[in-house]
Automatic annotation (TrEMBL), chains A, B:
Pathway(s) per entry: Cofactor biosynthesis; tetrahydrofolate biosynthesis; 4-aminobenzoate from chorismate: step 2/2
EC number: 4.1.3.38
Keyword Protein biosynthesis: no
Annotated family: Belongs to the class-IV pyridoxal-phosphate-dependent aminotransferase family.
Taxonomy of the source species: Bacteria, Pseudomonadati, Pseudomonadota, Gammaproteobacteria, Cellvibrionales
InterPro entries per the UniProt record, alphabetical: Aminodeoxychorismate_lyase_IV (IPR017824), Aminotrans_IV (IPR001544), Aminotransferase-like (IPR036038), BCAT-like_C (IPR043132), BCAT-like_N (IPR043131), Class-IV_PLP-Dep_Aminotrnsfr (IPR050571)
Signal peptide extent: none
A Gene Ontology cellular-component term: cytosol
Self-association state and partner proteins as the record states: Homodimer.
Classification via Pfam families: Aminotran_4
Protein name: Aminodeoxychorismate lyase
GO BP field: 4-aminobenzoate biosynthetic process; folic acid biosynthetic process
Single GO MF descriptor: 4-amino-4-deoxychorismate lyase activity
Cofactors (names): pyridoxal 5'-phosphate
Amino acid sequence: MTTQRVPTATTTWVDGQQADALPLPDRALAYGDGLFETLLLAGQRITLQDYHFARLGEGLRRLGIPDCMTAVREQLAVACKAVTHEHEFSVMRLTVSRGAGPRGYAPPTDAIPRIIITLAPLSANPWVLSSPADLGETAVRWGKQPLLAGIKHLNRLEQVLAAADCARSGHDEVLMLGQCGEPLSVTTGNLFVCLGDKLLTPQLCDAGITGTRRQLIIEQLGAACGLQVSEARLDVAQLLAADELFYCNTVVGLRPVSRFRHRRWLRHPVTSALHGAYVGWLA
Amino acid sequence: MTTQRVPTATTTWVDGQQADALPLPDRALAYGDGLFETLLLAGQRITLQDYHFARLGEGLRRLGIPDCMTAVREQLAVACKAVTHEHEFSVMRLTVSRGAGPRGYAPPTDAIPRIIITLAPLSANPWVLSSPADLGETAVRWGKQPLLAGIKHLNRLEQVLAAADCARSGHDEVLMLGQCGEPLSVTTGNLFVCLGDKLLTPQLCDAGITGTRRQLIIEQLGAACGLQVSEARLDVAQLLAADELFYCNTVVGLRPVSRFRHRRWLRHPVTSALHGAYVGWLA
């Protein structure tokens, strides 16, 4: 494990300038009218940048926010240069707001998107497999909303409420179901079920976020580890019958589940293999 | 109609101080983690204040945001004093954010809510019945999410998308359905159907916002006009069969519908009577 220099402060840029405040009015504040990405930096390099940009672009199109990908790339490049140690890991949050606008839900036709970037140190080493998680449950379900499913927009109260529930429960993470009781995700990441040589992950056509790590596993890592990956409608019984469970997100990478209801999992060979492939892919 | 002085600028306060920017980080920006109210001021007086405070209080409880109603009342009182003409109408937006917090969905247990207030002139006179609206339709449906239904939280992308659709269509407003195709509201207000001496309004247990004007009509104005008011699951056929349709919100009050699909409504006696009772109640 590399020795890490841990910067102490978060740095924020608004439209390319270091700042500690957001100009008002702003539609992201008013209505959650915008998108975000949580980025893992290895040194000055954004990992899985193409996957993040693809999802962000899809979000801009779905919300009808003017294409600002060129400005996003330019401003991210400036912010990345603030990382001074090549062996340092950082978490960057990129927020794209539709920007200013008059009162009312209707977006201005001449909106100028606003780009907010924060950079903070990451003390954990994402190349090391996280300790297995004790998975609880929450009564907070994802709402059903196909028009917003998949993209990483700023309307995230469901996960806020579920995460509050998780913190109260003392579990490491909690399973979030959809409106029909189907497992969809945990509060901070996507869920995978290992069953023999099959790898299943919930379909996210009605709710949830299509994570960048989820996409990489579906498109690359599963096959690289000899697994058949598919998106499916799951039920809780399949989770309990799984050989392994894990979840994934940008910050933790892949994290195995050690416990869910009465089930215990002591070994995680498939998750470990996928994690190895993941680190190899990114490093 | 009273002559109105129309102030030109919007004034903004953040935590009681005039400001033009929001300190960062802020969870309302990050996740839409907060609530708002749109208030109609007649002179320095907030109309239907008790209804607004009741809904805001319910929202704080549901989201687990610390009770900040005392600070809200104090800061609103200061902002109201900025209105200098007693015959002036203004629109005030009150936003309560959960405030600052570290990265991640889980809300800090020691959150200090942040209060943002904006005050802007209203050029229309809300005591005069609005011109009847041409009601269109939108493919943007409300998501199903019982945990967030009713309260006026900051996750408002569904209405943003529907309002964008409305603007493109050229209609004055558009009907928003729920996930099962049931009429729930228009983009900016609550819907009412008049049928003989019955007044029906959609149940909002799965989606939508329980408007203050809707509550006043249900609790007071309907009976005052000899109408039986009830919340019900409606279908589009009932709208087409209605004697009258109207919608209501804080800024326009009650607004009759002149047209929906093939139906035209030329007279609006029930809506006019309710509007008269509404103005009498508020003035």
